[in-house]
Design goal:
Radius of gyration: 16 Å
Largest sheet: 5 strands, mixed
CATH architecture of the largest domain: Sandwich
Distance between the termini: 30 Å
Strand order of the largest sheet: 2-1-9-8-5
Strand content: 35-45%
Structural class: alpha+beta
Number of domains: 2
Order of helices and strands: EEEEEEEEEEHH
Shape: elongated
Helix content: 25-40%
């Protein structure tokens, strides 16, 4: 059996994932990064996006909403605002949220409302990440 790394995903509501995996790919602010077993220790900030992990031939996706990641002692821990399994995301609902966010963003830009624009941009990023996580692996 190949070496694995312990993946922990923790949200304010508690642990979401806790299992040994082969590889983790995550959305860092400096770009996406991958972590295998026995990786050197490091810290990273996490942006809204899709976290992917593989265990043998099984691959799973999580939509994550910002936070931090620590790699140490063959363990990778994510402390994130929220995490949703791609397989549990309602794509139709995410598409409607994306459309609403795009409309709010256009209205905020038209009226030069910085606060509403920032909120709409974050809502759009979350909706797009949900759609990507849910559809990842589709042909």
């Amino acid at each position: 059996m190949s070496d694995t790394i312990q993946l922990e995903v923790v949200t304010p509501n508690g642990a979401t994932i806790s299992e040994a995996v082969d590889i983790v790919t995550a959305p860092g602010y400096g770009g996406d990064f991958g972590v295998l077993a026995n990786h050197a220790p490091f810290l990273s900030t996490i942006k809204i996006g899709v976290l992917t992990y593989k265990q043998g031939s099984k691959e799973a996706n999580l939509m994550v909403s910002g936070g931090f990641c620590e790699v140490s002692n063959n363990k990778i821990t994510f402390l994130v605002e929220s995490a949703e399994q791609g397989s549990e995301i309602d794509v139709d609902r995410a598409m409607r949220a994306k459309e609403r966010a795009e409309k709010r963003l256009a209205a905020a830009q038209q009226h030069e409302e910085k606060i509403n624009q920032a909120r709409a941009e974050v809502a759009l990023q979350r909706a797009m990440a949900r759609i990507k996580a849910a559809r990842h692996g589709e042909a």
